[in-house]
Amino acid sequence: MNKSVFFGALAGAALAGGVASAATLDDVKARGKLNCGVTTGVPGFAEPDANGVWQGFDVAVCRAVAAAVLSDPTAVEFVPTTGKTRFTALASGEIDMLARNTTWTFSRDVDLKFEFTGVNYYDGQGFMTPADLGVTSAKDLDGATVCIQTGTTTELNLADFFRSNNISYEPVPIETGAEAVQQYNAGACDVYTTDASALAAQRANFEDPSAHVIMPEIISKEPLGPLVRHGDNEWADIVRWTLNALITAEELGVTSVNLSEMGGGTNNPEINRLLGTEGDLGAMLGLDKEWAKRAIGVAGNYGEIFEKNIGESTPIGLARGLNAQWTDGGLIYSPPFR
Amino acid sequence: MTSIADHTVTRSKSSFKLSMLLNDTRYRSFTFQFIALIAIIAFMAFVGGNLVRNLAEAGLNISFQFLKDPAGYDINQKLIEYNSQMSHGRAALVGLLNTLIVAFLACITATVFGVVAGVLRLSNNWLVSKIMSFYVEIFRNVPVLIWILIIFSVMINALPAPRDFRGDEASASMVLFDTIAITNRGVFVPSPEFTNSLSVAEQDVAEDGSIVPAKGWQDFALIFGVLFLSWIAAKLIGSWATRTQEATGSRPTTWYILLAVWVVPLVAVLAFLGLTWDVPALKGFNFQGGLQLRGSLIALWFALAIYTGAFIAENVRAGILAISKGQTEAAAALGLRPRRIMGLVILPQALRVIIPPLISQYLNITKNSSLAIAVGYMDVTGTLGGITLLQTGRAIETILLLMLFYLTVSLLISALMNVFNNRMKLTER
Amino acid sequence: MTDTHISFVRHEEIPPSPPPVAERGVLKWMRENLFSNWFSAILTLVALYIIAKFLIGVFPWFYNGVWDAGSIRECRDILEGRFGACFAVLVDRWDHLLFGFKYPQSEYWRPVLGFVLLVLAAMPALFYMYIPTKFLIGTALYPFLAYWLLWGGTLWLPIAVLAAIIATAFVFRFVEAMSVQMRTILAGLVGVAGAIGLAYLLYLGAQELWFISDSVGSAGGFAAIAGYLFKAASIFTYIFAIPMGIFVGYAIFQSAEDGGLVTVATALLAIYLMLAYAIGPVSEFLNGLIPIELQAVPSRDMGGYMLCMMLGTVCVSLSVPLGIVLALGRQSKMPLIKGVCVVFIEFVRGVPLITLLFVANVMLAYFFPPGSGLDLFLRVVIMITMFSAAYIAEVIRGGLAALPKGQYEAADSLGLNYTQATRLIILPQALKISIPGIVNVAVGLFKDTTLVSVISMFDIVGMIRGPIQQSTDWISIYWEVYLFAAVCFFIVCYGISQYSQWLERQLATDHR
């Protein structure tokens, strides 16, 4: 609590103070900490562990940005936000960036005035039902009771899907994933719908995962990515290219293991540009030469982060699928570093 | 300072000093209020200026246009017609009605719980009074949000799912001659339907030649109209009986007339409409037909009722204890039995003490119903303050509307209850 | 005794024979208290049936409970399909449930000590009839110590604030005791400063209002009307900025003789200057000399049950003075002040706390200057304090209304002015009557602190619904954690409400 500022504000001294809209980068540097908005908890994507340290796929993006800007991946203040509060938290400047399972949509980009800086996970809304119901397609769900986890674009996609297929359903909106799963397991709803990644994560933790099937239909496009406020393009560039650096690193084979070795210089000019041994891309961003090297050094490249947090070896057990590199037939694609 | 100038005229100029504005009680209140006014204006300037600046900086504006845009989401429980193509405003209205209905149901049930528990807590039966104390203490001392979550969870897990009714060895079955299904998705009860419904021009005929029953508001309006007429007739008969009693000293036996007045027209109109019952039956994923009281409604209703019931029980107990013992003794001396003493002597007097706190408990129920989203009940906080807020991102506008709505409802409830309270008071004297 | 008259004379009393079996002991008690009539008997049997059913249903769950497991999957393995609780989550996440997941583990002793001291510090206030008044000093010192314990940083900061407050009190006394000549000089200086300061402040306000009216008025429709209103307010403030400044300055100067206003103005000026400019450098300097520091913990890191406790204690203690002011304001004969208080109280009481928390979360930040550093905790404290102040104001209003009119008249007849009468006669009595009501509001408020979980703060319920239920280890655990939260609240709330009832009985004795 900044006492004197508060008292000053109350005394009206700040009446005269004009809007000094400093650049976010300067703010972050002056503060020495990055304020990063995350969820209140989604397994694998953002959750505090038993020691209270935030872990997860989205969290890794925050840490990479902090490492690039502040040279310290732990200099992040994680601000938990709910679906309701995330946009105001960002708009009001409480957080510098939001890395929270947020779907890139037209209205959020244009109407709410945010800048999506890329996509770190391509998701889509799916359905899960108990196997013994014998349903094989979401189109057979006429009259079903559907548990929806609210707070995303889920409700809208669902309404559109059932409307366009001309079948009826009964929506049961639930606030948190845990409560939705409880209802689903007790049979209070026939179907549970949310992002397919979350479905897979929840199913992996059921008592008997094989008793539940995920429908083949994916009814929506959910490109999830970090976002920042409109208007501060320099800051948006930093977040965008930090994410791109992680992706490019995987494409070029830069990993946390060989990072220091490659940081000494390689034959591949793009790796050199990325890691700052050739040219000075960092200066264009207002950072130093080794920004990307530090970002990659936190938890490795995009693929490593994926495997560690939500990959097939974790309880979440997600396959790369759409989130494979474009060279492997996925959608993960970074513009070139030059 | 016009007010000061006015007053200088009324007093001789030489005797007026500026310091009198502070020290003279005649003027001091003007000074204070003027300072307060300035302070309010300064506060508004501070807050408003910041608001305008901050919004401009964030590139936002205040606009209620979004209320006309299509909402795009579905709501399960709707009292008025609604689908996802209708506007956000309409969705807010649906939620608003849902708030009102759960608040209304919970108020009534909480009063019943509260009165029963409050009276039983004073019972001579040791076990019962202890259980009631336990109920009151355990519900009063744990947050309502935790209770809502726990009760909802109990309901979800303790009641059978529709799939338990399925198959030859179903683990659950319908109650009351297979007419009512109690599931964890809600309670399904038969609902009336009419083969000669007024709501459709021509009744649909099914493939096997039978008439498909229908229902509409016109049918119910007709039934209520008939009931209303019966009620007026019964009133008239009652007053005729009273007049006769006053004139002749003996009251004519009217119960069979009253019975006929109530029953005959009702039976006639139901026969005319062709009443049948739409009994819920397991079809596909869920029970179809009949009337569904959704699980979320029941859970919230029950949670609010049982929580607030504990508070009302305390009010009732305090009200009863406030009635002097002499009243009980006097009633006992008149030969009344304990339960009649309670019903005829103590409770009517205690009501005067109970009603004011009861009003604030009703207000609390209405306000606590805003936690509905914890059980997935789509009240106004869930529609307007929930999904609409999420979809449009118009936080300031939706929250302002939300507060406005609750404020209106609260003021209405307290106004209504105050009228009732005053009437109770008047009849006392 | 060899007398042959054999007539039996008993020399000792027969011991009283025991009452019939049905009239004694357990049976009698049962007959009177459980089976006094058929209705009561039925109730008893029904109650017994329900209790038995409940116990049989719940007992195995407790009995089979697993206390040692690392995750819900391990729990299931240990239970092997039996019906049982997984209390291991409480063991595993004990710290998180109590302190939140970010409070540094090595510092847990601080909130614990803070809590113990809270209980001790509350004693003199709660049992004021048994404990000498001088112990209240400890209660008054507690907030400063607790701030330091919980938030950490240097001890010199709370000490500096405390010193500033004490110094202000000395300034107050000093000015009061000054000779009239000295005070006239001081009043002149303070008056000029006050006049210039106020005029400048109002000038800025007027500018701000003009700015608002410009940006609001351009929207058209209703907004245009609002724009004109703001414009009018702006012009009004422009006109009155200098006269108001001069007036207040002159009033301060005029009060040199009796000393009322000048004392207050000097004290206010002194405390503002000290808080805004002095305490920071002074505490830093002192800390440089003698560093007494604890690891600083930002309020964002508070969580768990501790957060509920903190919000409850801070908001209740802040809202009592505010509630008193509101209650007095509502009783005031000045229409403007009364109106403002009534509108505020009725507005706050008419909306659910959850909407006020939404305001704290999404709107309040817009009302303060950009970058004013109001964190979520502080914003929530502001809103909850407003909320409970409105309720406490109503309780105190009840206390004020319960005072016999004679008390007011007696105070007037003694020649006491409003402040004196209120401070010495009215409030002590009204507050005493209101204490049970205030305690009830406090309990209700403490329970309502769980609502902050809705706005993504990690109090105990937020901790459960967020990081615990959504963690990979404890995904979808339910009963055990909520039961724990319920027990936590029950212990504290039941304790306080028992105290409240006891106090009511204590107070009742001198009324009847």
What does this structure look like?
- The complex is a heterotrimer of chains A (338), B (429) and C (512).
- By secondary structure, chain A is α/β, with parallel strands linked by helices.
- Chain A has 2 domains: 23-122 and 224-328, D-Maltodextrin-Binding Protein, domain 2, CATH 3.40.190; 125-220, Periplasmic binding protein-like II (D-Maltodextrin-Binding Protein, domain 2).
- In chain A, 36% of the residues lie in helices and 16% in strands.
- Chain A has 14 helices and 14 strands.
- In chain A, the strands form 5 sheets. In chain A, strands 10-9-11-8-12 form a 5-stranded mixed β-sheet.
- The relative contact order of chain A is 0.14.
- Residues 1-21 of chain A have low confidence and may be disordered.
- Chain B is mostly helical and 429 residues long.
- Chain B has 3 domains: 2-57, no CATH class; 88-160 and 292-428, MetI-like (MetI-like fold, Orthogonal Bundle); 191-277, no CATH class.
- Chain B is 65% helix and 6% strand.
- Chain B has helices at 2-10, 20-23, 25-58, 88-121, 126-140, 144-158, 217-248, 255-273, 295-322, 325-333, 338-368, 380-392, 395-428, and strands at residues 181-183, 186-189, 191-194, 275-278, 281-283, 286-288, 291-294.
- In chain B, the strands form 3 sheets. Chain B has a 3-stranded antiparallel β-sheet. A two-stranded antiparallel sheet of chain B has the order 3-4.
- In chain B, helix 9 (295-322) packs across helix 11.
- Chain C is an all-alpha fold.
- Chain C has 19 helices and 2 strands.
- Chain C has helices at residues 25-33, 38-63, 72-79, 88-92, 94-99, 109-126, 136-151, 156-177, 180-217, 222-254, 260-289, 304-331, 335-350, 353-363, 376-402, 405-413, 418-448, 460-468, 479-509; strands spanning 153-154, 293-294.
- A two-stranded antiparallel ribbon of chain C has the order 1-2.
- In chain C, helix 6 (109-126) packs antiparallel against helix 7 (136-151) and helix 12 (304-331) packs antiparallel against helix 13.
- The longest helix of chain C is centred in the middle third of the chain and has 38 residues, at 180-217.
- Chain C is globular and about 115 Å long.
- The mean pLDDT of chain C is 85.
- Chains in contact: A-B, A-C, B-C.
- At the B-C interface, helix 2, helix 3, helix 5, helix 6 and helix 11 of B face helix 2, helix 9, helix 10, helix 13 and helix 14 of C.
